[in-house]
C-alpha cells in the first residue's frame, strides 16, 4: 500500500480524488490538508462521504508520503512547493496549471512531465512529478492528436465547447450563482482561454510544423459536470481513412474510445472515459469529444497517472459507471 496526501482538500477536484482513493486497493489516504477546514470532518464538506471516511482535515503535513496531490488554485502550487520540502521519494501530481507549459515545468530541482497518458504514457511511467492536464485541454487534445500525429493538421481548427458549473470551482462569482446559471448559456474567454497554451504545446510536440490557428470558444452550460466539444477542420481524406487513423492511435488507450454512433454527455459523466465521434462534411472533418471535467478532466486522470507512476494496472480504482438517469 502507498500513502497519499492531498493539499487543498475542500474543492470539487479534491472531493473526487478522495472518493477515488478511498476505494483504490493500493492506496491509503494519509492526510487531507486544508487550513480553512483544519479539524473539521472531511464528510462535513464532502457530504456524500458520511459513513465512508472518518478522517478530519488537517493543517499539518506528512512530508514522507509516497504520493502528493496538489488540488490548489492556479498559481498556488508553485508557492506551496517553494515553502514545503518533501521526501526525495515522494511523487507529486499537480492538478493546477502551474507546471503544464514547457517554460514553467521546473521548480526547485523538480521537473514536471505533462500528464496526458494518450500522448506520452512512457514518460509518465518514468516520472516523479506530473502536471495534470486541464479539463478543456484534455477533451480537445484527445480530439485532434491523431491528426497531429499523422501531420494532417494543415488548416485552422474551430472549436466550440461547453462545460458544467463545477468547471468554475467552489468559489462564488456572478456567473456561478444558481439564479444566473439556471436556464442560461454564455461564452467566456473567447479565443484566449488559458488551456490553449498546453493544447498548442502538445500539437507541436507531434506535428512540429503546425502553424495554423486554433479558434476556441468556451461556453458555460446550465448543468453540473461534463464537457462536450465539437471541433472541425479541413481534411482531405475519407471518413474511413480518418476512422482508421483514430482507431490506430487509440488502440492501446484504456479510457479513450471512438464511437460509431453520435455521442452525448451522459455517456461519460461519473466515468474516466473520453468518447469521440467522427463525421465528414464535404472537405471538413467534424470531431465530437466528451468527458467528465472532474474525472478524465481532473481527478480521474490524476489517479490514472498515479497508477502509471507506481506500476499499478492503469485502470485500477477507475472502473466507474455513468449515471444515465
UniProtKB/TrEMBL annotation:
Question: Which cellular component appears as one GO term in the record?
Answer: cytoplasm
What Enzyme Commission number(s) does the record list for this chain? 1.2.1.38
Catalytic activity, per the record?
N-acetyl-L-glutamate 5-semialdehyde + phosphate + NADP(+) = N-acetyl-L-glutamyl 5-phosphate + NADPH + H(+)
What Gene Ontology biological process does one annotation of this record name? L-arginine biosynthetic process
- Residues annotated as the enzyme's active site: 135
Principal location listed in the UniProt entry: cytoplasm
Record's subcellular location: Cytoplasm
Q: In which pathway does it act?
A: Amino-acid biosynthesis; L-arginine biosynthesis; N(2)-acetyl-L-ornithine from L-glutamate: step 3/4
CDD domains linked to this entry: AGPR_1_C, AGPR_1_N
Q: Which SMART domains match?
A: Semialdhyde_dh
State the UniProt keywords alphabetically: Amino-acid biosynthesis, Arginine biosynthesis, Cytoplasm, NADP, Oxidoreductase
Listed GO MF terms: N-acetyl-gamma-glutamyl-phosphate reductase activity; NAD binding; NADP+ binding
Query: Which superkingdom?
Result: Bacteria
- Extract the InterPro entries matched here: AGPR, AGPR_AS, AGPR_dimerisation_dom, AGPR_type-1, NAD(P)-bd_dom_sf, Semialdehyde_DH_NAD-bd
Among PROSITE patterns, the record links this protein to: ARGC
Q: Which residues form the Semialdehyde dehydrogenase NAD-binding domain?
A: 3-127
> What family is reported?
Belongs to the NAGSA dehydrogenase family. Type 1 subfamily.
This molecule's function is given as: Catalyzes the NADPH-dependent reduction of N-acetyl-5-glutamyl phosphate to yield N-acetyl-L-glutamate 5-semialdehyde.
Its protein name is N-acetyl-gamma-glutamyl-phosphate reductase
Provenance organism: Tenacibaculum adriaticum
Amino acid at each position: 500500500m502507498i500513502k497519499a496526501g492531498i493539499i487543498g482538500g475542500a474543492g470539487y477536484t479534491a472531493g473526487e480524488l478522495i472518493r477515488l482513493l478511498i476505494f483504490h486497493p493500493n492506496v491509503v489516504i494519509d492526510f487531507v490538508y486544508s487550513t480553512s477546514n483544519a479539524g473539521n470532518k472531511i464528510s462535513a464538506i464532502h457530504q456524500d462521504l458520511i459513513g465512508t471516511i472518518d478522517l478530519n482535515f488537517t493543517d499539518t503535513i506528512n512530508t514522507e508520503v509516497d504520493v502528493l496531490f496538489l488540488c490548489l488554485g492556479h498559481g498556488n502550487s508553485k508557492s506551496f512547493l517553494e515553502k514545503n520540502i518533501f521526501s526525495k521519494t515522494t511523487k507529486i501530481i499537480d492538478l493546477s496549471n502551474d507546471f503544464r507549459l514547457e517554460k514553467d515545468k521546473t521548480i526547485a530541482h523538480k521537473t514536471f512531465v505533462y500528464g496526458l497518458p494518450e500522448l506520452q504514457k512512457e514518460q509518465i511511467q518514468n516520472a516523479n512529478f506530473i502536471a495534470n492536464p486541464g479539463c478543456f485541454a484534455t477533451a480537445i487534445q484527445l480530439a485532434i492528436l491523431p491528426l497531429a500525429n499523422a501531420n494532417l493538421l494543415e488548416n485552422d481548427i474551430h472549436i466550440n465547447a461547453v462545460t458544467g458549473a463545477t468547471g468554475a470551482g467552489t468559489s462564488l462569482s456572478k456567473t456561478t450563482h444558481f439564479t444566473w446559471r439556471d436556464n442560461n448559456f454564455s461564452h467566456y474567454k473567447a479565443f484566449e482561454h488559458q488551456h490553449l497554451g498546453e493544447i498548442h504545446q502538445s500539437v507541436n510536440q507531434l506535428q512540429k510544423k503546425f502553424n495554423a490557428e486554433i479558434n476556441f470558444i468556451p461556453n458555460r452550460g446550465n448543468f453540473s459536470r461534463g464537457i462536450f466539444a465539437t471541433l472541425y477542420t479541413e481534411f482531405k481524406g475519407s471518413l474511413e481513412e480518418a476512422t482508421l487513423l483514430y482507431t490506430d492511435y487509440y488502440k492501446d488507450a484504456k479510457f479513450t474510445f471512438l464511437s460509431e454512433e453520435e455521442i452525448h454527455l451522459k455517456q461519460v459523466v461519473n466515468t474516466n472515459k473520453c468518447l469521440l465521434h467522427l463525421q465528414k462534411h464535404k472537405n471538413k472533418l467534424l470531431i465530437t469529444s466528451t468527458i467528465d471535467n472532474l474525472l478524465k478532466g481532473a481527478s480521474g486522470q490524476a489517479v490514472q497517472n498515479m497508477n502509471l507512476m507506481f506500476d499499478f494496472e492503469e485502470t485500477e480504482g477507475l472502473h466507474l459507471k455513468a449515471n444515465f438517469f
